[in-house]
Design brief:
Chain lengths: 270, 257
């Protein structure tokens, strides 16, 4: 059975001033299997964050339902942890404090010592040993997102929801953290739902990729399986024969703004 | 050209002091009877050499009087600030309530706390309680307005994090909302403290409650202008000290996003 099920979810916004409703996406349905890594790929503004927030339970769907393990999602929960595009760390807390606040919330019965050990375990896991007492403003983007990952993993969620987690990180660091994420995903057996607009990132990380059409009224248009064996690395992936056909299909889809544009874009890719 | 050194401001600061004292001296030469720097220094020496003397209920040392004023200020300010922060959080979390209450807050904060004094004195019939309430009234509005603003404009991300972690309302307020709005709240506290300290002097003077304001008025009644000038200086210095304490609090609560 699928761990996460999204059924015909639509989202409308009524922008102030305008009288009509604005449809971000419509009838989005998808399933994520246990331990799967699923990515949703789409243009900026097509509603990826909105969809992810609905699954996270911090935004409400206008239509349709989402289910986790058969139970309807009606609000946020510790079973689904979000890693935000802009990190969303609490700037007045240290690295340690940012992780501890999550551990304390998830395990209210634990004593100081247990909490401390647990936090330290996740600090070490994301390679932030020695930076425990730094504040987010003193960290590089890569280190900040490591804190974000540690904060998400440390509560032991069933699902990780990643909202363009590496978009604000420089390319070199991004590769390293992507590989760490895969390692943690394999070690913990967690299920991951990620939204991104980075094609290579989606191919490197995912088992399956869903393509969203540009908004408004975005929809999920296509599904692609990434048949590249793991372990993958950035270099091994591009050498695999399935890589370029897959990448070209995705890029062709994403550059297809309207019918007139289509021929031009195909030429560009070929 | 040489850059001004790190210590340059100290020299300039001492120069200002010198200019101030010189100007003061010159003006006392032109205006007869106004106390000059030297007599004030003598008076200061006299009062400060025994700051905590006690010659009965209405004659106490300047240190004791300053402590009376500070105690009154602290009590009224803490009570006012706690009330302001609680109300501010409630208003900040509820936009409708905030909008509805805002006009009244703006009106109330425009009223000098001294203006309430006759009414308060008439209702409670006790000058000490009235003085406390004046401080309370002076403290509450800036902090209330700032807290409500700080809480309502807190970054959505922080609230999202607290929601995702399913924090209970108490930890949400104490661990996310208050620290997030902390710098704005402290800015309000500083304004509140300023207006409370400004209000306490006339309140004590008019109510005859023992303190620095009482001292000013008493010395005026004794026609001792030298002591009045000294008291003015003490009020200023204590005010700077209070502001310094709140500034250190602000530094502790500040964060870089
Ligand atoms: N609270 C809101 N009120 C009105 N419109 C909104 C609101 N939030 C998002 N939108 C609109 O919904 C659309 C989708 O936004 P969303 O942030 O989900 O896009 P996205 O795919 O995550 O984009 P990006 O890749 O830039 O992060 C955008 O057009 C945005 O303007
Ligand atoms: Mg987004």
């Amino acid at each position: 059975m699928a761990l996460l099920k999204v059924e015909a979810v639509s989202k409308y916004f009524t922008s102030p001033g305008a009288r009509s409703e604005f449809c971000v996406f419509k009838d989005v349905s998808l399933k994520v299997k246990e331990k799967e890594f699923l990515s949703v790929l789409g243009h900026s503004g097509c509603g990826k964050s909105t969809l992810l927030n609905i699954i996270a339970g911090i935004e409400a769907a206008s239509d349709g339902y989402a289910y986790l393990d058969g139970k309807q999602i009606i609000g946020p929960g510790l079973d689904r942890m979000v890693v935000f595009q802009n990190f969303a760390l609490l700037p007045w807390l240290t690295v340690f404090g940012n992780i501890r606040i999550a551990v304390k919330a998830a395990y209210p019965g634990w004593d100081r010592n247990k909490i401390h050990q647990w936090v330290q375990k996740y600090v070490d896991m994301v390679g932030l040993k020695g930076a425990e007492d730094k504040r987010p403003s003193e960290l590089s983007g890569g280190m900040r997102q490591r804190v974000g990952l540690a904060r998400a993993f440390c509560v032991g969620p069933r699902m990780l929801l990643l909202d363009e987690p590496f978009a604000q990180i420089d390319a070199l660091t991004r590769g390293v953290i992507q590989e760490e994420l895969v390692r943690m995903w394999e070690d913990t057996g967690i299920t991951i739902f990620m939204v991104t607009h980075d094609v290579d990132e989606a191919i490197l990380l995912s088992d399956r990729i869903l393509l969203m059409s540009p908004g408004p009224e975005a929809r999920i248009m296509e599904e692609m399986h990434v048949d590249i064996p793991r372990p993958r690395s950035r270099t091994s992936v591009i050498e695999h024969p399935a890589y370029y056909p897959l990448r070209n299909r995705i890029i062709r889809f994403l550059s297809r703004k309207d019918e007139d544009d289509q021929t031009k874009c195909v030429n560009l890719v070929a | 050209m040489r850059k001004p050194g790190n210590k340059g401001w100290i020299v300039l600061c001492l120069l200002f002091l010198f200019l101030f004292i010189a100007g003061w001296q010159i003006s006392t030469v032109s205006f007869r009877d106004l106390p000059g720097p030297w007599p004030v220094a003598e008076t200061a020496w006299y009062f400060l050499s025994d700051p905590f003397y006690d010659n009965g209920p209405n004659d106490k040392g300047i240190g004791t009087l300053a402590l009376y004023s500070l105690g009154r200020l602290t009590l009224g300010f803490v009570a006012g600030s706690v009330a302001a922060i609680i109300l501010g959080v409630i208003l900040g979390l509820n936009q409708t309530l905030f909008k509805a209450a805002n006009p009244y807050i703006q009106i109330l904060r425009a009223i000098s706390p001294i203006a309430w004094m006759p009414l308060l004195l008439y209702s409670v019939q006790n000058s000490n309680v009235t003085a406390l309430m004046v401080v309370f009234m002076a403290s509450i509005w800036p902090t209330l307005a700032n807290t409500a603003f700080g809480v309502s404009t807190i970054k959505k991300d922080y609230v999202n994090v607290s929601n995702i972690l399913q924090m209970n309302p108490i930890s949400k307020v104490f661990k996310v909302i208050l620290p997030g709005a902390g710098p704005t709240i402290v800015a309000g506290l500083k304004i509140s403290m300023g207006s409370a300290w400004v209000a306490i002097v006339p309140a004590e003077a008019l109510l005859g409650s023992l303190g620095l304001g009482y001292f000013v008025w008493n010395e005026w009644n004794n026609l001792s202008l030298t002591s009045v000038v000294f008291a003015i200086l003490v009020i200023g210095v204590v005010g700077v000290f209070i502001d310094f304490m709140l500034t250190s609090l602000a530094k502790r609560l500040a964060y870089v996003d």
